[in-house]
# Entry
Amino acid sequence: MIMTKKIIKKILSYFFLGLRAGLGLFFRARSWRPVWLYLNRYSRALYQRNRRPLNPVQHRLMEDLKRDGIAAVALSELFPGENVFAELRSYTDRLIDQAETKTNKEFLRFLWDATPVLELDNPFVRLSLRDKILDIVNAYMDLAAHFYYLTLNVTMPVPEGSQAVQSQRWHRDPEDKRMCKVFLYLTDVDEGAGPFPYVRGSQYGGKWGRLFPQQPPAGCYPPAGAIERIVPSSDIHVGTARAGTLIFCDTSGLHRGGYATQRERVMFTGGYCSSASPWPLRFKYPENSDEELKRLNFDPVQRHALQYDQSAFVRLAFKKIKKGFKYG
# Structure
């Protein structure tokens, strides 16, 4: 009996090792540049047909992204004459008392579900789909990107000297060869409130792009202290900023999550990737998606960002199957 358990345990360990290796090969194959370009052929064509000229602020952010992998701007500068931040802050204040730990990241509290419903009247969703933001993301990626992830969190302080764990460590996200996330500080973030550190030039094609490369599907976590020993401090963006600062960042580059030691940090995160990414959606569509999209009259780039046209086809197929629809 004991021998049987050992054999089963060994078979399972080999199975999971093989599964991990297979997933890694699958991710790497999709990241190989000729394959990546082919899988994104429609997204690239859609972007070229619908691209809009960037204003000076957008152009600066796009150039910073291409050079450093990270760029930052005040919402008031990106949306002059609009009181965008006040609405977002008011919305957050109404939910802040509901923040709960919902994953194994004990230092992170969620104001939404870990996999939230994509409510199209949510001001953070509307922000993520604004032309001025999508145009920067798409210009950086040179294609029409998919919006796949959103979360609103409170980063809780940990005792001074606590070991950095999980996303608090230096790492690369594994979702795509080139990707972009936006981070909006809802509170002032200084050294004690968990700023967002990033190695400038660690994105694909950058100066440090080959340092501790991605190891999908698990990402890459360099040994403790390795980044500081190799990368000069001048190439490390610290990430302190005032409330209302919006950060664009290619998180396939080396970065760390919030490591707060003195004050809470409240931050929104939205994620964009390409059609080549095999990463699943990290949100759920509401039941009234069709009606809402018709009401909002989204353009082709926004619909593509929501991956809604593809998802609608999948939902329709499942409905047909449930009703006994026979293909052919």
Q: What stands out?
A: DSSP finds twelve helices and eight strands in the chain. The beta strands are 70-74, 108-110, 146-155, 180-185, 198-199, 236-237, 245-249, 265-273.
